[in-house]
């Protein structure tokens, strides 16, 4: 009989890797894997592209999760089933506050659940919060490396191109929300319920009150500050996860 593989991520039940770094974009997974020793492509099914490798001698997995809460929730469910104990999302985001500049990192301490996926797991009164130990490890790793970063709340949503986005952004900005993404709330809620430590580091690719589509386009074209922010979030996530060892 063949090994038992998870239906979507196509990774085997007995993979035996405890730590995962989760970019949204499969191309970012490939770029992140380049920093690992003995990096090996494991699978690429749908949006889930995965690599294994070593960081500080510790086995880690890098796996893309695609865009939006549903594909993140499936990733967390299947990763937990194969024994992943802690995961750090390395995403991109739009800034809702002027102090978060392009290429800065946002360490998400909690997420506004303005998306549908997490509601399938718990009512809105349930908080979407990072694992305290993992968040602290992320903050320490970024600080030690000297990266520009901010800790705060992100708003996770399901709709990048809403006509009323400017008013929505302004409203959440007035409430102190720092950044906007699509997956962090689902990661935090599903991870917490299934017993996985989670954290989320977001690279600011769209400035506050900027044109989101234009900014994301520049990121895809490899604009320097966002490429630098991406490198910073990758290195921070590897370092933070391996701080959990011992
Ligand atoms: O760059 P990733 O990690 O995909 O994150 C952000 O980018 C996508 C939108 O461009 C959404 O998935 C959003 O959350
Ligand atoms: O503004 C942005 C940029 C990336 N991702 C988002 O969800 N929003």
Overview of the molecule:
- The protein has 246 residues and is of the alpha/beta class.
- The chain has one domain (19-243): Rossmann fold.
- Helix content is 35%, strand content 28%.
- The chain is built from seven helices and nine strands, in the order βαβββαββαβαβαβαα.
- It has helices at residues 26-33, 69-81, 132-145, 165-174, 184-194, 212-220, 224-243; strands spanning 19-23, 37-45, 48-55, 58-63, 86-95, 105-114, 149-157, 179-181, 197-206.
- Strands 5-8-7-6-9 form a five-stranded mixed β-barrel, surrounded by five helices.
- Strand 3 and strand 4 form a beta hairpin.
- Helix 2 (69-81) runs parallel beside helix 5 (184-194) and helix 3 packs across helix 7.
- It is globular, with a radius of gyration of 17 Å.
- The N and C termini lie far apart (36 Å).
- It binds 1-O-phosphono-alpha-D-ribofuranose (R1P) and uracil.
- 1-O-phosphono-alpha-D-ribofuranose binds next to strand 5.
């Amino acid at each position: 009989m063949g090994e038992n593989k998870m239906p979507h991520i196509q990774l085997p039940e007995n993979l035996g890797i405890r730590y995962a770094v989760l970019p949204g974009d499969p191309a970012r997974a490939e770029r992140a894997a380049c920093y690992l020793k003995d990096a090996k492509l494991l699978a690429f099914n749908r949006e889930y592209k995965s690599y294994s490798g070593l960081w500080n001698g510790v086995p880690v997995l890098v796996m893309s999760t695609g865009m939006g809460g549903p594909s993140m929730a499936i990733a967390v469910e299947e990763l937990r089933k194969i024994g992943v104990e802690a995961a750090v999302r390395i995403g991109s985001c739009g800034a809702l506050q002027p102090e978060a500049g392009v290429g800065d990192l946002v360490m998400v301490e909690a997420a506004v659940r303005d998306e549908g996926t997490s509601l399938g797991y718990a009512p809105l009164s349930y908080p979407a919060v990072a694992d305290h130990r993992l968040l602290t490890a992320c903050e320490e790793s970024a600080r030690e490396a000297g990266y520009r970063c901010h800790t705060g709340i992100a708003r996770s949503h399901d709709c990048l191109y809403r006509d009323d986005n400017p008013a929505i952004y302004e409203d959440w900005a007035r409430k102190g929300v720092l950044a906007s993404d699509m997956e962090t709330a689902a990661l935090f809620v599903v991870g917490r319920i299934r017993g996985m430590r989670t954290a989320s580091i977001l690279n600011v690719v769209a400035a506050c009150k900027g044109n989101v589509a234009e900014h994301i386009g520049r990121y895809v074209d490899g604009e320097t500050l966002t490429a630098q922010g991406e490198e910073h979030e990758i290195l921070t996530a590897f370092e933070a996860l391996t701080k959990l060892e011992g």
